[in-house]
Amino acid sequence: MRPLLPSLLMALSTLLLPADEPAATATPAHTPAWLENAVFYQIYPQTYRDSNGDGIGDLRGIIEKLPYLHELGVTALWLSPCYDSPFGDAGYDVADFYKVAPRYGTNDDLRALFAEAKKVGIRVMLDLVAGHTSNQCEWFRQSQRHERNPYTDWYIWNDNVWDWFTPGLQLVVGGAERAANYVPNFFHFQPALNYGFAQPDPKAPWQQPITAPGPQAVRAELKKIMRFWFDLGAAGFRVDMAGSLVKNDPDGKATAALWAEFRAWMNTEYPDRAMVSEWSQPQIAIPNGFHMDFLLPFAKPGYKALFRPDGAAVPIFDRSGKNSIRTFLDEFEPLYTATRGQGFIAIPSGNHDTVPRLGNGRDPRDLAVAMAFLLTMPGVPFIYYGDELGLRALDGLPSKEGGYGRTGCRTPMQWDASANAGFSTASAAALYLPVDPAADRPNVAAELAYPDSALRATQQLIALRKAHPSLAASGDFQVLVAEKDRWPFVFRRAKGDEVIVVALNPTDQAVTATLPAAVVAQSLVPLAGTSDTFRREGDTWLVTLPPVSYTVVRVAE
Length: 557
Ligand code: GLC
Ligand code: CA
Hints:
By secondary structure, the protein is an alpha/beta fold. The protein is built from 13 helices and 19 strands. α9 packs across α10 and α11 runs parallel beside α13. The structure holds alpha-D-glucopyranose (GLC) and calcium ion. Alpha-D-glucopyranose (GLC) binds next to loops.
């Protein structure tokens, strides 16, 4: 990075400080302090690193790569499910919640991962598939038996095998010994656990209220699962389909109340553990107990539009500049305002359900601008493994373990230029999924050696975020410039005395914006990205960004 011209360094710059400047947000009560500076990294265990040459990633492989994760600077991991499973949905069909799948290792390996990660300051969060199990789970085997037993009411069964239709619910018909049909939560082999109905249909007595013994037993078991992994060292959970638990719960209130109860329990017994929900309704999830909620493509259009085409619309972060940050902010700002001070919105770079990947169609400069956005916004950032390199999703792969259209974003991590990109020593044919065959596929070793790589940019931006309180999760956020169909996007982050301004231009044209009316004369200290971007013209302040660039500056006294 070039230093700012001394004249500019000394120059007085001005930045909007509105009259109704809100006080810096305090970390919400009962929020683990470590979330404030957290940078998460999602690992898909089957494709991260294979330590024993069987073609499938494993826990020992993740342990091997802890030095890399430490060097990258992430502070927490989220592991997609690593529990015993028939893998009809890549492990989101759990057969035994208390046992690591043999293909990934043992419970002791997971304990070792928690301990080794802790040594380098990294916490490990697991995936809690709360809404359903595999149909191979022992609870479900028992539940489908004819004789009444303790598991009879752990799943949602109707009372007549010949009743095939129920308004608002799917049913899987036939196949059980019991003369009834069950409600699946996702694929047919993922029976929904019975958390009860918020508004049971009085004409269908099999729809049990939340307070019935079955739903209460399931709730207790969920707590037991959480306790089990907390006690082994898990830092928390990403909760799968968190809004799906209680049925016929139109406004999500009963499900939300369940999570509020769990949060109260965690506040008392496990106050340093955290939960992030797959809900994408932060205005419900956060006030009801989740420390964080993801923005995801299936909710409103703003998140999806950030990095991925949506129908005919180009992504917001696109060289054409045809879409603007307003598309995102129209969704984000009300959610941010509604949840501020109570928890954090998590903006992920991608995940195992999302194609294409951030890396598709973006070069290292584009990726640096995207990462500058992700790593300077308020809330908690989540990086999907490989996105720091620009790993690309593959098109046209046959479905693997229920991946279908999602399969292409689950391919192996690319470590170096050796066979299988260093993911595994197995033959290419034996790999869980093929490695990107492109000659120019990115890899960690090459990007560590190249100062202008996406990986280096990500690493620097993570370090920047961790070094500046105003860039952390609860730092104040205020939009300075964000016009419809125009760039740049300029915003201000602040905490205590520190004020930082970020300006982003993902387009291939230079862009200029006038900052709102000047208030305080100050100087700017460049922190990251392009320098020489701010200039005074009479009473106005202009920010000018070259094509595909960003700038981060600190407002000095
Ligand atoms: C979540 C997971 C997805 C899984 C589904 C069912 O959406 O992210 O991968 O298939 O839940 O558990
Ligand atoms: Ca392996």
